[in-house]
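Let's practice the habit of predicting before peeking. Look at the sequence and jot down your guess about where helices and strands might fall. Then scroll down.
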Amino acid sequence: KTRQLFKCPISSQQESYYQPRSLEKHADSVLALASVLWSISYYSSPLAVFYLYRKGMELLLCVNALGGSAGLRLPSQKCCLFFPGIGRWTNPQYIQFITILEDAHRYGTSEHKKKLASYNFDFRSWPVDFRWDEATTSYCKDLHEFGKLMSCEFIKEREYTVRLQPLFSSFLNSYIVAHTFGRRMLYPGSMYLLQKALMPVLLQGQARLVEECNGKRAKLATCDGNEIDTMFMDRRETSEPQGQKLVICCEGNAGFYEIGCLSTPLDAGYSVLGWNHPGFAGSTGVPLPQNEANAMDVVMQYAIHRLGFLPEDILLYAWSIGGFTATWAAMSYPDISGLILDASFDDLVPLALKVMPESWRGLVTRTVRQHLNLNNGEQLCWYQGPVLLVRRTKDEIITTTVPDDIMSNRGNNLLLKLLTHRYPKVMAEEGVRVVREWLGASTPMEEASIYSSYEVEDDWCLSVLKSYKAEDGGEFPWSVGEDMTPEGRRQLALFLARKHLQNFEATHCTPLPSQEFNLPWSL
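Done guessing? Here is the structure:
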């Protein structure tokens, strides 16, 4: 079985796009067109079925009419695959590539993989570099023991139950919505058409990471059978002290490590590990919550057991929907250095309701809770370490009204949930009120004005927290502020809010500059 080749080396410093011969080129064009047409028909099939049914056709005839194209597609596609195969096997460049690929699979040495890395090709053929079950230390065993990582057997049983249950319950509609357009609306980056359009940009971004940043690409196998595409940039040998820390980046719902938030910590001098969601670019699978968690787990294990970073030297940086996997990892690997959530949210339901008809409220809520439950706020409260939230003041995606209404930004709710969980006595009544007032400031000047109007003494707040930590401080929640005056609680609430939230005057998709990449605050 042949694989598509995109780029190949022409010297030790240069590379060029692979030049297929005429037979292969024309056959590939036909296959690409067929794939695009199939994708369009696949995504539009629910509308087509609805239209035909409204026209009076029987549902069975609708399915047959739409399924006929699929039946014709398979033999014609197999026929078209024959011609590019001939073209590739008569091309010396391809023969050289396939020899190196087979050697990498057969021997698996670093030298063979280094030669293979000089080519850019269909990632499905890349040999697996790390498996989820390779780690045998007690650290991973503890994760399994406490149930924070589902075993493969449990996942298979759960998936089987999820497939059967909707057929015999009243929640069939939720299952259909989640697994048709719901998942694709939530993770548009998993759609073939978008990936096809972005492919040249992704290839350029990947080449830049490998050539300019000495990136090391690897394939990780998860416990549910998916394969995750990763890229690691090692800065430990540089003179910059931050290079000793590893930043693991979790991208957004249409983000790829090739062109995503990975560049921010990379420009700041950190060692960086990027990965693509299941179903994104080189990663296989479907981006459902459990698959996302499984992917994040194998990435963490790879960082610890293969790349050699201690958990306390690992920092998680997530943008937007990547906050789900980042908070899951922080909850499951509590010894990590810290967590940075950029333009993230606390709960998916309010954001889903914003873009769907009001009459669908019940269906949307049920669908999210049962199949697409990205409960970032709940997971964040399980983590005991340092946290920094970056709020975009002009965010148009995670606001529930309009971008200018900063109080509808769900990052506010994420902050309030975190502080209320960790410091319940401080945040009682007055604390929540003053933090909401501070969050409502539309400019840095207004924010500073509110902060100073309550005469917050930073040194006093810091000394109170340090004293409590030295005497009674264990795991959160803390009872600090229990015997404090309302004025003292207000000061502490504002102090803690400013330490845990960083405003960035930008829209949702504006890249965070490296100078704005700050480590989370800790006592």
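How did you do? Residues 142 and 148 are 9 Å apart (CA to CA).
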